[in-house]
Structures are given as C-alpha cells and as structure tokens.
C-alpha cells in the first residue's frame, strides 16, 4: 500500500491510539457457566479417547 497523503497516516495513527486507549478501559468478567464450559471443553479436548 502506497501512502500518498502523510497527513492521513498521522490521522490514522491518532485514531488507532484512541481506539487502543478505549479498548484498554473495557473490563470483561465471564459468567461462571462460561468458565465451566471452557474448562469442560479443555478437559474433553486433552483427554485421550479410548
């Protein structure tokens, strides 16, 4: 990709920094049921089948 407009790249960089800053503020706590489903899946995936 050729960049013919250096001002646009600075604007894109600023938007990217703002997006990263916003994403850093998001907090996520999965429900216990979700964590249990993940653990069950991992256990099933790592247990050798007979």
Index terms:
elongated, 50 residues, mainly alpha, 2 helices, single chain, 68% helix
Kindly summarize this structure in a few lines.
Helices cover 68% and strands 0% of the residues.
Structure description:
- Helices cover 68% and strands 0% of the residues.
- The protein contains 2 helices and no strands.
- The protein is elongated.
- Low-pLDDT runs of 5+ residues are none
Major sheet size, sense and barrel closure: none
DSSP helical segment count? 2
Strand content: under 5%
Helix content: 55-70%
The count of β-strands is: 0
Q: Strand pairing plus helix content: what structural class?
A: mainly alpha
**Large-scale geometry:** elongated
Mean pLDDT over all positions? 85
Any chance you could write out the topology, listing elements then pairs?
Layout: H1 6-24, H2 32-46
